[in-house]
Structure formats: C-alpha cells, structure tokens
Write a structure and sequence with these properties.
Layout (H helix, E strand, L loop, with lengths): L6 E5 L5 H10 L3 E5 L7 H5 L3 E2 L3 H7 L2 E4 L4 H11 L8 E4 L5 H13 L3 E4 L2 E2 L2 H6 L2 E6 L2 H14 E8 L3 H29 L4 H10 L5 H12 L8 H18 L4 H15 L10 H9 L9
Parallel strand pairs: 1-2, 1-4, 2-3, 4-5, 5-6, 8-9
Antiparallel strand pairs: 7-8
Length: 299
C-alpha cells in the first residue's frame, strides 16, 4: 500500500510535534494524534484529524506510528505501551532525540512484534518544524526509507540517509553537539566583546561579514538584541542532548573537552532557572557571571 493511502499516527504534540503533525495533515495524509495532555490534541479534531486517548489506541488503528516525545525514557515508555498491538505491516518511526542504546532497544521491541522501525530524528527547531523545512536524519533499511520518504518530506526539506538503525540517532547527537558548542562560543564571544567595550552591533557586524557568519548567529543575535528568549529549542532540551553526546563519547572512548566545557555553561543556565527558555538564554548566564548587559553594556 502506498504511504499516501496509509493512516498516520503521531504521538507527542509538543513544540516540535504539533507543527509536524500539522504539516502531515496539510500534505493530505489521513492523520491521527495522541498527546499525554489531552487539550493539546483537541485543535487537531477541528481540522479533521482523529484524536486518540491512549497511545495503544492510536497504534492499533494507524499503519505508521511517529513518536516525537522528550527523551529516551519517554520513547521506551511509549514503545512499551504500544508493543502488544504492533504487527507485520505497521511501521514505527522514532523522531525523538535519544541515546543510541534507547534507539536500538526500541527497534528490538518493534522488530520482535513483526513491525518495521525507522530511526529518524530531525535537525531543526520550532520555526523549521512550522515551515516544514526540517532535515530528517534517517537510519534504517533503504527500502523503508524509500517507502516513507513522501511522509518524511511533508515535515522536512531533505532526508539524509545516515546508515543502519542507530546511525540517525548518532548523526543527531553529533549535529546537536555542534549546535550547543556554537551557541556557547557565540554567547561567550559577545560577552567578551562587550566586556572589552565593543558595542553589540559592531561585534555582530564583524561576525556576519566574514567566514563565521551563519544563520544560527543571525537568528540568536536577533533574539538577544530583543531580549526575547521565547522557546524555539529550550535550554532543557539542548542540555539533555549535550549529556547524551557526552555519554556516547564516553562509551566510544573519545574525549570531548570542548563539549564538556559547554555543558557547564548550560548547566549554569539551568541553575538560574532558564531551562524553559530558548537556548540563546545561555547569554543570560554570561551576563550574570560577567556583570554586564551584552546589548547596551550597562550594569
């Protein structure tokens, strides 16, 4: 059966899951949704989606089950709760950022029931999720990726084929490790420049005019300039992903000294109670430790 004719279920309607579900529906797929907080799912009913009140109800009724929750324990809890209704012909796609061990454990559970599993976390935050421009990092059988690609491209602009199951997860940890390191270095550079008496605008102009200019610094620089830390990708989530990357580094025997230092920056932001703010709020941690305001230089 072509993917367009299958019923798609999405579990997890958070910052990322809700816009992803919306794009699936807008692409013409028959959609069902489940969220632990029921009120978050009700708007989808008005748009013609089926709302389920238990994950196993969704999994029993849908051909493809997408999971977009918070972390490893959440993924394994969901997979465990739906395992009994999985069977041959069903596909489970995990899009949550988790550890490789959690991915492999979830895949084993799904496989034991005769269903297919695709490891497909995403690169991108709230705005790309809303715009349908995420990058899907797929690990699994080539045939399964081929079959599900129209669905994946309803949520993203590109599918990167990373290898076998687990490779998508490892790619996601790599890219989010780099993201965290870049955000931490950017906030530190802004603070350094302000402490030396340079103004925020000229620092950002210098960064954007050369080889270091990139969309991340432009977007987060605008947020810092407006003192707007509305959540796109929260401190809580990037801190979780840094810890997952460091855990993976420990297992593989590679030293990650830069990432270890960046972890402490985000740990400081967590300690300040900034966990639910955007990752750019790590700048607040620097402002506090340096006793400056990055934008105006005042104390």
């Amino acid at each position: 059966m072509p993917i367009k004719d299958k019923k798609i279920g999405l579990i997890g309607l958070g910052t990322m899951g809700a816009p992803m579900a919306g794009n699936i529906k807008n692409a013409g797929f028959d959609l069902g949704v489940y969220n632990r907080t029921e009120s978050r799912a009700e708007s989808f009913r008005d748009e013609g989606a089926t709302v389920y009140y238990a994950p196993w109800e969704l999994a029993e009724d849908c051909d493809v089950i997408i999971i977009m929750v918070t972390g490893p324990s959440d993924l394994l809890e969901v997979v465990g709760s739906i395992a009994d209704v999985l069977k041959s012909g069903k596909t489970v796609i995990n899009m949550t950022t988790v550890s490789e061990q959690a991915t492999l454990q979830a895949a084993q559970t799904v496989d034991s029931q005769g269903a297919d599993f695709l490891d497909a976390p995403v690169s991108g935050s709230k705005k790309p999720a809303e715009d349908g421009t995420l990058v899907i990092l797929a690990g699994g059988k080539e045939k399964l990726i081929d079959e599900t690609e129209p669905l994946l491209l309803s949520m993203g602009k590109k599918v990167v084929r990373c290898g076998e199951i687990g490779a998508g997860t490892k790619m996601k940890l790599m890219i989010n490790m780099l993201l965290a390191n870049m955000m931490g270095a950017y906030a530190e550079a802004l603070t350094f420049g302000r402490k030396l008496g340079l103004d925020f605008e000229s620092v950002n102009e210098t960064i954007s005019s050369g080889a270091l200019g990139c969309p991340l610094f432009a977007i987060k620089g605008n947020s810092i300039a407006r003192d707007d830390y509305s959540k796109n990708f929260s401190i809580d989530l990037i801190f979780k992903d840094i810890n997952l990357a460091l855990e993976a580094g420990g297992i593989s025997g590679i030293a990650l000294p830069v990432t270890s230092a960046v972890r402490e920056m985000f740990s400081g932001a967590e300690g300040m109670g900034l966990g639910d703010e955007d990752m750019a709020a790590v700048a607040k941690y620097y402002q506090k430790t340096a006793d400056i305001k990055i934008v105006d230089g005042g104390k």
